[in-house]
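Continuing from the previous page of notes. For each protein in this section, the sequence appears first, followed by its structure tokens. Read the first protein now.
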Amino acid sequence: MDNFELKPERKKVNLKSLVWNILTVGVLLGICCLAFYFMAIFNNPNSPLNPFPPLAPVPTLYQTVTPTQTITPTSTIMALPNTWTPTTTIQPSPSRTKAPTWTLLPQMITPSVTPTPIITPTESTPIKTSTPMSVSAKITYMASTDFHPDKNCDWLGVAGKVLGTDGKPLQFQAIQLGGTLDGKAISLVTLSGDSLAYGQSGFELILSDHPIASTQTLWIQLLDNTAKPLTDRIYFDTYVGCTQNLVMVVFTKTR
């Protein structure tokens, strides 16, 4: 028992715990370094440590502007009098010398020519052409109540239709009516086929809201698509009676 020595037990070092402790200390030191780094940039954004320094501030209107130096001219300006009245000098205008008067000799005088007035035929004058036409026209008179029963006798007009050589209706043919009625100029144009009450190629032209008598002062004419006349101006009469207040004109191509 006397020779027995007590030896202290050696504890085994846990390498795994040591490694975790070293890593924990490293993380804490890194956090402290990052905190110091961010505090340095926060206090001084323009520090060289900041990889993204702020842009230079844009000068505003409220910044103090250094006044520029005013240059005072050194030249001496002559003082003008208090009252200055300009003096105007009128230059005499040169006198004009009249040109000598020339006297024309009798042989130098050209006799004046009096133009002959040109007589323009009026609308009431029938115009006849020698060009043979390929369309004939037939005019009859009837009561307008056959087509306008609601108008009674309060109507005056011209109507009709256009037929071809085979007797079939021809549409889109131009019909022109002109002249004077009761002292007023009349000028109307229509196309065949615009009034189907008189047939597929029917047309109608209204002259007045009441019958008026006239003698050869109105004319009607058939035109082609180029406004070339296919007939002469065909003059007709109008009557006051209610049984003749519709002038019926039938155009028929003969060739």
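Done with the first. The second protein uses the same format. Note its length before scrolling.
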Amino acid sequence: MSVHIAAKPGEIAEIVLLPGDPLRAKFIAETFLEDVVQYNTIRNMFGYTGTYKGTRISVQGTGMGIPSIMIYANELITQYGVKTLIRIGSAGAMNTDVKIRDIVLGQGASTDSSIFKHIFADQVSFSAVSNFELLDKAYHTAKRLGHHNLHVGNILSADRFYDAEMNKGKLADYGVLAVEMEAAGLYALGAQHGVKTLAMVTISDHLITGEETTAQEREQTFTAMMEIALETVVG
């Protein structure tokens, strides 16, 4: 077991879905997977392994924010040999073309976090990008399944949930589609360790219109995104 994950060697699959909410991890495991075994309850950050259409898959909650997802993703990669990690989360829309419950695939992740300043010591402004093979596969899987409320592009991984100072309008003008809090950290680890990473998010609220979904809806009704992620890794 690692510091934050109680699994024994071999209990976690090489493919892991990463919802921020541990209750969403529980919902996915109970709804989509067969022969499910729970391997983690430390800090109530639930983790499960099961099979989907014969493919072994794990689902691990990560909590909120870049520091939290990087703890879990780092341990999954370095101590459990995970090779494919897909964040399945929620996000706030920053563009009028993106609607509530639309799905966004994060081709890249801008961030106001100091993560890359620390990694590269102000040498370069590193671009956090997803794995193209995984992104391409997810895009075509979504289209095959008939999910047309789909967008691909740049998302913002913000350090603060409540941030009145950030110029969200300017970011939208530059093509940023949505804001969440984790993708850039996941992409950094993917680049560092040479593993496949992707963030796909469902729009839970809209920064322009003020529309929003409930906490229970975010936990249990974003099933289209969950299906796309699962079909992507077994297709």
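What the second structure shows: The two ends are 30 Å apart (CA to CA). Residues 66-80 form the longest helix (15 residues). We return to this in next week's lecture.
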